[in-house]
């Protein structure tokens, strides 16, 4: 027969905080997904393995069954983020063309970045040399943009210039917005709409417009 004192000890010893309950089926993808969600909450640079292990309900050494280092975890977050962003852009632009596709893709890009600030930061990290998977998802996301821009009959350097301009415009705006840099009273959504319209106007005139000669700096 179990004594009252023994029963109390059993209850105390068997009790664990909810954050320490181990999760079944833990693997590399689930660790990366949870880390990305946590990074979106606290910031990519404030993500720690100790906090992640606690969130997953495992001891920190157990994380190394699924990752090799913090750098490796950041790499996995980046790869997944690039894949996600590419899929978001593809869904937004499917069945659309020209200005309609540019607008839909631009707003999808901004919405995703604002919802996932840490993942967005990670998505802009360059692949390490020889990382075939990272290079593939990086190219796939850019290819979605390139496919949309085919409606403007751009080729060669004209196409490269347009892709760079489009990505730079969106990245610059979104990065400032995530950083809280837009503090004036003017409506930010309206500013973004005007940016997108400006890109569309520029693309309409991209081919056949002489490149202005700028004065030397």
Main beta-sheet strand count, sense and barrel state? none
| β-strand number | 0
Our estimate of the beta-strand percent is under 5%
Q: Termini, distance in Å?
A: 90 Å
Provide the gyration radius in Å: 23 Å
The secondary-structure class comes to mainly alpha
Could you tell me the mean pLDDT? 87
The run of helices and strands is HHHHHHHHH
Keywords:
217 residues, mainly alpha, 65% helix, 0% strand
List the helices and strands and how they pair.
Elements: H1 4-14, H2 28-42, H3 49-56, H4 70-93, H5 98-115, H6 117-123, H7 132-149, H8 156-178, H9 188-204
Helix pairs in contact: 2-4, 4-5, 4-6, 4-7, 5-6, 5-8, 5-9, 8-9
Structure description:
With 217 residues, the chain is mostly helical. The protein is built from nine helices and no strands. It has helices at residues 4-14, 28-42, 49-56, 70-93, 98-115, 117-123, 132-149, 156-178, 188-204. Helix 4 (70-93) runs antiparallel to helix 5 (98-115), helix 4 (70-93) packs parallel to helix 7 and helix 8 packs antiparallel against helix 9.
């Amino acid at each position: 027969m179990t004594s009252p004192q023994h029963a109390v000890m059993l209850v105390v010893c068997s009790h664990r905080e909810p954050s320490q309950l181990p999760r079944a089926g833990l693997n590399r993808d689930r660790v990366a997904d949870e880390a990305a969600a946590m990074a979106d909450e606290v910031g990519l640079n404030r993500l720690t393995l100790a906090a992640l292990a606690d969130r997953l309900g495992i001891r920190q050494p157990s994380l190394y069954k699924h990752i090799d280092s913090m750098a490796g975890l950041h790499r996995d977050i980046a790869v997944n983020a690039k894949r996600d962003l590419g899929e978001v852009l593809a869904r937004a632009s499917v069945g659309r063309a020209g200005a309609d596709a540019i607008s839909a893709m631009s707003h999808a890009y901004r919405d995703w970045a604002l919802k996932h600030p840490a993942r967005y930061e990670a998505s802009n990290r360059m692949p390490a040399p020889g990382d075939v998977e990272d290079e593939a998802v990086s190219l796939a996301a850019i290819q979605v943009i390139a496919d949309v821009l085919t409606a403007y009959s751009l080729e060669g350097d004209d196409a490269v210039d347009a892709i760079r301009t489009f990505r730079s415009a969106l990245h610059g705006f979104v990065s400032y917005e995530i950083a809280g840099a837009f503090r004036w009273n003017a409506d930010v959504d309206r500013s973004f709409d005007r940016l997108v319209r400006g890109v569309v106007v520029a693309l309409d005139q991209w081919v056949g417009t002489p490149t202005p000669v700028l004065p030397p700096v």
